[in-house]
């Protein structure tokens, strides 16, 4: 059993229970974090709990506080609350992203949690699987379900669509339906189930390190301008050509 994943699940369970209380301190604004965004109380609480559970295993590089000294040479790249604006707006699509990396910054294990559904998607070596947190806490590894590509998806996810209407229009012309959900790491974890995940702009390591590792077996484009992931080569090529036409 992965000590990293086990501790991350225990931490996430504690975070979810704390956030469900909806205490006023979770919504308070704080200073600008290491990732460049202004932190809220929920960001900092989530980071504090992950640190409590994970610093005994590795260092942490977090979107909120930057580098946090732990044990050994491994480092967890952490976004403690992906989708902060959704949390503030009571939109049920937010969670966290964690990638355990070696000293050369190469991911070894990763997990992305959806706090609202209490589910996770993880990769350990070549094994990619999903699980329910409550099921894991009662059944352990028996809760893991191999993650396979869905054959029933009808649309993709386009994060930052609101500031890229020209790309949205081109996707519409190609009959490529999409939703814009507001939590890029969570959306990367959905790439096995939707037609594509497109992020317009430069995506930070805090948001992408775990997701790109989870989706290594899918088609990927990762540049300073776009991140594109798709399980479908034809759809991937269609969107790739659209992006190149706008370069």
TrEMBL record:
It holds the Pfam family Inositol_P. Keywords: Magnesium, Metal-binding. Its cofactor is Mg(2+). It comes from the Bacteria. Mg(2+) binds at residues 63, 79, 81-82. The keyword Magnesium applies. One of its GO terms (molecular function) is metal ion binding. InterPro entries: Inositol_monophosphatase-like. This is Inositol monophosphatase. It comes from Helicobacter marmotae.
């Amino acid at each position: 059993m992965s000590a990293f994943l086990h501790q991350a699940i225990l931490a996430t369970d504690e975070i979810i229970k704390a956030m469900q209380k909806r205490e006023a301190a979770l919504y308070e604004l704080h200073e600008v974090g290491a990732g460049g965004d202004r932190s809220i109380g929920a960001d900092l609480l989530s980071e504090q709990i992950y640190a409590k559970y994970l610093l005994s295993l590795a260092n942490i590089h977090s979107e909120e506080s930057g580098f946090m000294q732990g044990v050994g040479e491994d480092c967890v790249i952490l976004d403690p609350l992906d989708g902060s604006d959704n949390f503030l707006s009571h939109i049920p699509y937010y969670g966290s992203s964690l990638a355990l990396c070696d000293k050369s910054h190469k991911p070894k294990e990763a997990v992305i949690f959806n706090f609202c559904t209490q589910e996770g998607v993880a990769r350990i070596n070549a094994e990619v699987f999903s699980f329910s947190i409550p099921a894991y806490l009662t059944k352990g590894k028996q809760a893991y379900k191999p993650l396979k590509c869905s054959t029933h998806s009808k649309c993709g996810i386009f994060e930052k669509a609101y500031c890229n209407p020209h790309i949205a229009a081109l996707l519409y012309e190609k009959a490529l339906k999409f939703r814009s959900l507001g939590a890029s790491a969570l959306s990367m974890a959905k790439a096995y189930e939707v037609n594509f995940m497109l992020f317009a702009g430069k995506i930070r390591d805090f948001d992408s390190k775990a997701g790109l590792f989870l989706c290594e077996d899918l088609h990927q484009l990762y540049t300073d301008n776009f991140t594109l992931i798709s399980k479908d080569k034809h759809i991937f090529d269609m969107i790739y050509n659209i992006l190149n036409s706008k370069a």
